[in-house]
């Protein structure tokens, strides 16, 4: 079979001539011959496989620059790149779905008087038994609870810098502005952390109260647990490599708990880049008890032990003391920061 005109090639590849001209300009799919007088493009039949692959990848929504990368790889490597792209799409979809659900709930919610709830809290941070310094920071106030687990060298801790950016929120905030105010503060925290340099970063998990609602912001692998009606729920999702593997069905939760890369973060406030945290608005109820903690606690103390302490010890100060003691009793391999807060 001889060369195909751009029209014939477009029909065979299910691409438009306009798209083919664009791909030529980008170096993604160039014709084998161009008429020097008319400028008409001609393609070889052997180029159809590449053209059809491009067409399918465009239907997936893959950007042209990434399609070029896929086309330059061999079969298995190209398949791996497509799989990686689709995991990113699914993660973005899940994030958008949560945001859509929140917006639908807010738009459907009738205006109602929101009674003000009070919180009683205690906070503790501990170096542990192994680390030479403590980079875990916790802050608790009448409206703001926050935990950050920093990493990297330097005199200024990224965790302290991040929480300092949130502290001004520990004052009256209108309920309708909760998410926007908290999101803006976290963005400022990210800027402040990036100014420290490329090799430092921190997790950041915080709750901001107004009336009977609270805004939650979360990035990294610190956690928030909610004890309600005697049951303990983890209400944040770890931004770690192993958690993404669990979500994809490649690891079980039990395998993830002992995985050698279980502490490898995929999202954090980091000096190298900006990352989007999870944000959501929640309703608080009298009797709720919240636990915010760094991974030094939840990796050292079992979920059942956490539930036991949260259920059996009524005083928040005694509860945080017992939680840290249990982490150190189990080796104290990492710094620990935790907050226990009761809603009344």
From TrEMBL:
Xref: CDD domains: HTH_BmrR (cd01107), PP2Cc (cd00143)
Entry keyword set: DNA-binding
Recorded GO MF terms: DNA binding; DNA-binding transcription factor activity
Domain HTH merR-type intervals: 3-73
InterPro entries: DNA-bd_dom_put_sf (IPR009061), MerR-type_HTH_dom (IPR000551), MerR_fam (IPR047057), PPM-type-like_dom_sf (IPR036457), PPM-type_phosphatase-like_dom (IPR001932)
Keyword DNA-binding: yes
UniProt-listed Pfam families: MerR_1, PP2C_2
Protein name: MerR family transcriptional regulator
Keyword flag DNA-binding: yes
All copies of domain PPM-type phosphatase, residue ranges: 120-343
PANTHER family (alphabetical): MERR FAMILY REGULATORY PROTEIN (PTHR30204:SF97), REDOX-CYCLING DRUG-SENSING TRANSCRIPTIONAL ACTIVATOR SOXR (PTHR30204)
């Amino acid at each position: 079979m001889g060369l195909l005109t751009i029209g014939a090639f477009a029909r065979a590849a299910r691409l438009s001539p306009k798209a083919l001209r664009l791909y030529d300009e980008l170096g993604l799919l160039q014709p084998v011959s161009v008429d020097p007088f008319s400028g008409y493009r001609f393609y070889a039949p052997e180029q159809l496989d590449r053209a059809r692959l491009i067409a399918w990848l465009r239907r997936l929504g893959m950007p042209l620059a990434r399609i070029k990368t896929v086309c330059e790889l061999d079969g298995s490597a190209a398949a791996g790149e497509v799989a990686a792209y689709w995991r990113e799409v699914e993660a973005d979809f899940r994030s958008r779905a949560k945001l859509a659900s929140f917006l639908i709930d807010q738009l459907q919610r009738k205006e109602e008087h929101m009674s003000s709830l009070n919180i009683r809290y205690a906070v503790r941070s501990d170096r542990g038994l192994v680390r030479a310094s403590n980079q875990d920071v916790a802050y608790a106030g009448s409206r703001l609870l926050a935990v950050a687990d920093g990493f990297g060298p330097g005199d200024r801790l990224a965790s302290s810098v991040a929480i300092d950016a949130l502290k001004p929120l520990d004052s009256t905030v209108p309920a309708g502005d909760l998410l926007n105010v908290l999101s803006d503060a976290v963005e400022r925290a990210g800027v402040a952390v990036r100014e420290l340099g490329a090799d430092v970063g921190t997790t950041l998990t915080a709750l901001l109260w107004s009336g009977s609602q609270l805004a939650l912001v979360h990035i990294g692998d610190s956690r928030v647990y909610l004890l309600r009606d005697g049951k303990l729920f983890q209400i944040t999702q770890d931004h770690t490599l192993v958690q993404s593997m669990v979500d994809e069905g490649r690891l079980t939760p039990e395998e993830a708990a002992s995985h050698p890369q279980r502490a490898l973060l995929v999202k954090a406030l980091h000096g190298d880049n900006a990352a989007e945290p999870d944000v959501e608005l929640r309703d608080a109820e009298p009797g709720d008890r919240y636990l915010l903690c760094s991974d030094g606690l939840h990796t050292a103390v079992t979920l059942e032990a956490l539930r036991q302490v949260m259920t059996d010890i009524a005083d928040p100060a005694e509860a945080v003391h017992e939680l840290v003691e249990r982490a150190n009793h189990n080796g104290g391999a990492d710094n620990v920061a935790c907050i226990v807060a009761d809603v009344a």
